[in-house]
Structure formats: structure tokens, C-alpha cells
Design goal:
Blueprint lengths: L5 E5 L5 H10 L5 E5 L11 H17 L4 E4 L2 H7 L11 E4 L2 H7 L7 E6 L1 H6 L1 H9 L4 E6 L3 H6 L6 H11 L9 E5 L7 H8 L4 E3 L1 H15 L12 E4 L4 H11 L5 E3 L5
Parallel strand pairs: 1-2, 1-3, 2-9, 3-4, 5-6, 5-7, 7-8, 9-10
Helix pairs in contact: 1-10, 2-3, 4-6, 4-10
Length: 266
């Protein structure tokens, strides 16, 4: 069981930021990643559709004997976290929302928190509900930023286009006077520095991917499930393969990877 892989899935390749953080925090772990590139972005899909896609992917990861499964997509986490919040047999599920909320809750009484993410994540109100449950006095303002994920996937980072879009979103009145900003999309760590530059140190921009990886590592350590053997056998699957996605995946995972197409939805 210890040597079984960690399963990770997302609507596309954004979840590779979480996979990369897991690789850095837990270098002995094997990873099986599935990106549902056929149906991206989940942020524009209905709850019923996201649940259906996720169930198929989870079945695939379970068939690969994953010891734990990470829902590395905020849109999916926001609508299926209650369904897959507990263990299924010997497998424990993690989403990318609860670890961030737990980190915020350590000292949040006077926080003015901003949240940016996809339409599905923001409209669900899940961050506000979960944070308010632990931090009743925190002020939370959320803003849907639907152009950011496709902008990142197209490679528009650290340039005039990304700067214009980021500035347009962050200057929205909903985010005025915040002191913490949650990047509620696994794509956003790739523009974290641009966001930090916009705020010039006045706002704590929260590194969600690293928080999630450390949270999972601690849980696996407590359950005595950390891999003791450094084999590093990673496998990457997508539901619709394109060469451009394979090239883009390198930016998210920080190394060249080979994507294999698997059909789960026929």
C-alpha cells in the first residue's frame, strides 16, 4: 500500500501544478495523473456533468491501484467534495479547497480575504461557507476570473496580455482592501508572481498548490502511507491528446512529460 501511486485529476493540465508540488514535497511518491482535456474547462460545466466526469476518472484511478486520490481542480472540488469527502475502501480523497481553508483558519479573525477562480468555483460559494464556518469574523469577497485559465493554457504569461487581464480583474471593486488572496484555480500558481507584482507586497497571495501538497504529506505520514522507495514512476493520461497540450504540460509540471490518451467516456 505504501508503494502504491498517488492519483491526481483535473479538467485539463492545471492540476499539474499540484502534481509538481507533490513531487517536490514527497519526492519518493509515484504519480498517476489524468487530465480531462476532452471536457475542459470544468468551470463552465454543470454540476451534474462535473460529477459524471469525475466518477469516470475516479474509477480509472482506482483501477490503477492508487492509494489516495487528489481532486486537483477547484471547480470539481467545489461540487463533488461532499460526495467524495470520505475514504472509499482503502482510498482517501483530498480536494484542493480544505487544505487552504485549514491554513487560513490558523489565524484569520481579522482577515479581509479575496478569492478568485472559475465561474463554477465562485458561484458555488464554497470558500466563503467553509472559511466562515471556522472564521466567523473574516470578511470574504469573491470574483470570477474566467479568462485567466485559458490565458495561461495558451501561454500568455509574463507579458502585456496577461498583465492587462490580471490588472483588470484585480482592480475590481470587490477586491478592494483585501489583505489575503486565495488563488482558487490550479492554473493560477503560474501567474502568482505577476499577481504579487500587482500588489507590491500589500497582499498575501496564497500558494495553494504547495499548501495542498504539504497537507497531503502530513495526512499520509500520520497514516503511515508515505512511500519509502524512490522509484519515481510517473504516468500522465489525458482524455483528448494534442501536441500543444503536451508542450504546455511542461510549464505546469516543470519537466518534459509524455501524455497518453485514454478514452473513458464512450
Amino acid at each position: 500500500m505504501k508503494n502504491s501511486p498517488i492519483g491526481i485529476f483535473d479538467s485539463g493540465i492545471g492540476g499539474l501544478t499540484v502534481a509538481n508540488a507533490i513531487k517536490e514535497v514527497m519526492p519518493n511518491e509515484d504519480i498517476i495523473y489524468f487530465g480531462d482535456t476532452e471536457h475542459l474547462p470544468y468551470g463552465e460545466k454543470s454540476k451534474k456533468a462535473i460529477v459524471g466526469f469525475s466518477e469516470k476518472i475516479i474509477e480509472f484511478l482506482l483501477s490503477r491501484n492508487c492509494k489516495t486520490i487528489v481532486i486537483a481542480c477547484n471547480s470539481a472540488s467545489s461540487v463533488i467534495s461532499d460526495i467524495f469527502s470520505a475514504s472509499k475502501g482503502y482510498v482517501t480523497f483530498f480536494n484542493v479547497i480544505d487544505p487552504v481553508v485549514s491554513e487560513i483558519a490558523k489565524n484569520c479573525s481579522e482577515y479581509n480575504i479575496g478569492v478568485i477562480g472559475t465561474k463554477a468555483t465562485i458561484s458555488s460559494g464554497i470558500y466563503e461557507r467553509k472559511i466562515k464556518k471556522l472564521c466567523k469574523n473574516a470578511n470574504i469577497n469573491s470574483l470570477a476570473t474566467p479568462l485567466l485559465a485559458p490565458m495561461i493554457e495558451e501561454g500568455f504569461i509574463n507579458g502585456s496580455i496577461s498583465n492587462t487581464i490580471i490588472t483588470n480583474y484585480l482592480s475590481d471593486k470587490k477586491l478592494i482592501n483585501i489583505d489575503h488572496l486565495i488563488l482558487a484555480c490550479t492554473h493560477y500558481p503560474l501567474i502568482q508572481q505577476e499577481i504579487k507584482d500587482y500588489y507590491m507586497g500589500s497582499v498575501n497571495v496564497i500558494d495553494s498548490a504547495n499548501i495542498v501538497a504539504k497537507y497531503i504529506a502530513e495526512k499520509l505520514r500520520k497514516d503511515d502511507l508515505l512511500n519509502n522507495n524512490r522509484s519515481n514512476e510517473h504516468h500522465f493520461y489525458v482524455s483528448n491528446y494534442t501536441e500543444s497540450f503536451e508542450r504546455s504540460a511542461k510549464f505546469f509540471f516543470k519537466e518534459t512529460i509524455k501524455l497518453k490518451e485514454v478514452s473513458l467516456f464512450n
